[in-house]
Amino acid sequence: MKMRQGNLRRIIDIGMTVLLLLQMAYQVMGEAAHEWLGMTMTATVIVHQILNRRWYGAMLKGRYTAYRVV
Q1: Is the dihedral of CA 16, 17, 21, 22 positive or negative?
Q2: What is the extent of the structural domain holding 27?
Q3: What digits encode the pLDDT tens for the residues 19-39?
Q4: pLDDT reported for residue 60
Q5: Long-range Cβ pairs for the range 49-57 (8 Å, 24+)
Q6: How far apart are CA 12 and CA 14, in angstroms?
Q7: Domains in the chain: how many in total?
Q8: What's the rounded Cα separation, in Å, for the pair 4 and 36?
Q9: Residues 40 and 19: beta-carbon distance below 8 Å
Q10: What are the respective helix, strand and coil percentages of the chain, to the nearest 5?
Q11: pLDDT of residue 1
Q12: CA torsion, ordered 55, 40, 23, 13, to nearest 10 deg
């Protein structure tokens, strides 16, 4: 069973959201968990950027209307 890239993106995005919420529970989780969650979140952000690299190339294409700038 092969995972499509869209499904992988969705899993990474949900994972980043959950990790961010856990990161904000520093007082409850403790320092060690906070550090491990931070490293895991950094890794998921890097994977997220790699999976969405074509978006950066598409940003400079096309006309920039006032609506698009905002």
Answers
A1: negative
A2: 5-69
A3: 999 999 989 989 999 999 999
A4: 84
A5: 51/5, 51/8, 51/9, 51/12, 52/9
A6: 6
A7: 1
A8: 28
A9: yes
A10: 80, 0, 20
A11: 57
A12: 30
